[in-house]
Structures are given as structure tokens and as C-alpha cells.
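Final report, section 2: Outcomes. Of the targets proposed, N-acetylmuramoyl-L-alanine amidase is the one most frequently requested by collaborating groups, and we therefore present its record in full.
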Amino acid sequence: MSVPTSPNPFDSAVSRRAMMRGAVLLGAGAALGGVELLSATPALAVTTPTIASCATWGARAASSTLTQISTNPDKILIHHTATANSTDYTQAHAYSLAKTIQNYHMDSNGWSDTGQHFTVSRGGYIMEGRHYSLSHLTSGSGMVVGAHCPGQNDKAIGIENEGTYTSVTPTTALYSNLVQLCAYICSKYGIAPTKIYGHRDYYATECPGDAFYAMLPQLRTDVAAALGSTPAFTVTVDNTSSSFRASANWGTSTYSTQRYGTDYRYADPVAASDAAYYSATLPSAGNYKIETYYPANTGYNATTPYVVFSSSGNQTVTVNQQANGGKWNTVGTFAFAAGAQDVVAVSRWTSGTGYVIADAIRITQV
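The predicted structure is given below as C-alpha cells.
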């Protein structure tokens, strides 16, 4: 089943994309949780991109007072507009796009202003989206609360990229200026390049499209290069990846739209060592944060064991797969040795009832 899309273009915040569119249980058990330990990239001198303000492209005034907060954003979320892949690369087209987005968000969605903070056209023009986004960015202090991703509007800078990138990639002009914009945002707010994510990482959506999403590791690397730094290692292992393995006892499903990627694996609980394994080649010994992505359902298991094969021994973390689905959830931060290895396994050995789910794992060096 494909992810359902809204009949409305320019992504509503409720349904954001249509047109704009055997592991033996060892170690101490723990509850799902953890603390974000990624250090921020220090503010460096980077090229200041040309960003057209709301006044420059002719934005309407916001229909009501916008919420501005003193806390800084901690991440960047990449979106695509899911509109046509226009070959009009002019500034006039870019400004017209910005107006169309704002009109839709205000007149159809009923929002007070444009939902995202910034927009990049296929011609590479960068525009302020929501009023006050640019002034906060320039000062490197605080932000205006957006409307681009539920749960992240007061934490993440949202960037819309013109076009639909399910099977094609962005233009060179768009991508190169997106790198510049992200580097500038990272430098002003002290955000690490590893904290650049896709919309789908935090919401059940296809955005920013499979082709663009696959480019995000390179985007992080290119932004880090622009900042003169080296990005921390991060890798996502999906159940379709070659570094995932599970026995034939694990079925494959597309039932839930909260899944990561095209499908996910499921199995009945059993008192046996028949786990689904996620492996990776880690570049160096050290601490790595483990996150899990799965669809949630009342028919799934509330005490799913995640066995983490850390360098200090196997550690088991219990995850409630009846809640917090369709987004990344932190399992914890653990020490690992360098090299190719099994990193984590989802075990079927649980006293809970309901299917045990194995979908995707993200591993990030901290």
C-alpha cells in the first residue's frame, strides 16, 4: 500500500504531500529512550547565500501574529514541493512559485503564512518562506515556528525544493545552492551536518521523494565540506538492505503507511532465537547512537526486544511497537568496535503478544 497523499497541493501539515508534494536476550533490559549526543558544528565563516526576503519576492502579510521563539533550531528538514519539474529557471518563475505556495498555504490550508522557512527553485534561487525566517537566520538567534512537519515546526528549519524527486534528482543549480544554504544555516545556528534529514524521517510521507532522499548522505558530506569539517558516520539499514537478514519465518508486509521504505518484516513472538539482524561496517571504535523506525499498531508487540551487540556485551532494550510509529525513535547510545559486524537484532523472544516488527535502523557515530 502506498503512502496516502492529500488532495491538496503544497503539502498540508496533516497530510503533507500531494502535489507540492537468533538473538538470545542478554544484558540488562531498558526502556526505549536516549539522549541526543551529536555535537554541533562550530560556527565557521562560510559564503553567505543570496536569499530573497519576503518583501523582495512580494509576499503577502501574515494573516495573524506568527510565533517567534528564542530557542535555536537543532536540525534541517529537506522537502520537495511535489510540483512539476519546471524548465523555467528564471528568477521571475521562482518568485511566482513562492507566491503560489504562500497563497495555497494561507487560502486553502488556512495557515497564517507560508509553512516552510525557505524555498529553493529549480533555477537555484533561494527565497525566504515564512516571515522572520531570514532575520532570525541572519542573527543566528531564535526562529519563527513553521508549519512544515508536525512535531518539528519549533525544532527544525524546513526547506522546500521545487520539483518532484521520486525518480529523478534535482537540478545542479538547485542542489549546489541548497548545499550553500544548508552550510550557512549550520554555521549560523551551530547545527552539525549530520542533523540534515528528510521529511519522511519524522513523518509518514514519501517526501522528499526516493531519489532525493537517497542523496541526503551526499548532501551531509557536501555541507560538511563547505564548513571545512568531516561529517560523523551515519548509515540507515532497511529491511531491504543487503546488510539485513532474517529467516523465512519473517513475513513481508506493506500494510502500514507508517513503514520506512517499500515494506517491512513481521513475525509472531516465539521462545526461540530467531532474530532479524542489522549489520554495518563501522569506521572506528567509539560510541554510536542506534535509532529504530517501525510502523505502530495495536496488534503489534508492546515488548519487542532489541538486542544491541556492543563492545561491552549484548544489551537488550525493550521497545513498544504499539506506539511512536512512523518516525525515528532512539534506542540508545552504545560502544562498538571498528569493522564489519552485527550491530543490532530485533528478537522474537518476548512474552508479549502481537507481531514483532523489523523495519529500519539508523546508526550514527557520536
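The longest strand covers residues 328-336.
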